Amino acid sequence: MKISENTAISMPMRNLISILGATALGVWAYFGVIERLNNIETRATLFEADLLKAADQKPIDQEQYMLLEFTATQLEKVTTEMESMMNNRVNIDFLKKQVDKLQKDVEELGPDKFTREILHFCPSRGVLSYLEAKEQFDRRVLEKDEYYNGIINVRVGGSNILRQTLKEIIGDPNSTQG
User: Fold this and answer.
1) What are the pLDDT digits (tens) for 98-126?
2) pTM
3) How many CB atoms lie within 10 A of CB 105?
């Protein structure tokens, strides 16, 4: 069979219209998908460009950020200081009562009934705090009425310097004494 441009095909008109409709629908769908892909790609490119542009900080932005960081640090320090001072009022009131009681007793009993002596010379506040608490525990000041202590408040962190100084002042706790 020879096919040329003049070859006649006999086909029902309904089939021809169906083929042309299916072809038109396919072309329309293809271009719709391509348009959608182009639209998504364009949005992604623009979004990336906007994101990069927003990420670049101008000097004024950097200055504001540094100022904000500094202010936040200062706020944290003030908050910490305020929290540490919350207990001061209670301690101050307690100490006022103790001083008033001591003054009253000195007036009633006389100053010759009270002694004040330096027990240790301490090279640091940490050593002083430790030895002060140790003396109070050793003397059991909370258990006896002859002392004016109502609270033993101490906070000492252990360190090599503290241990070495205490060895020199009160001796080595690991040595056997007999």
Assistant:
1) 888 888 888 888 888 888 888 888 888 88
2) 0.41
3) 13
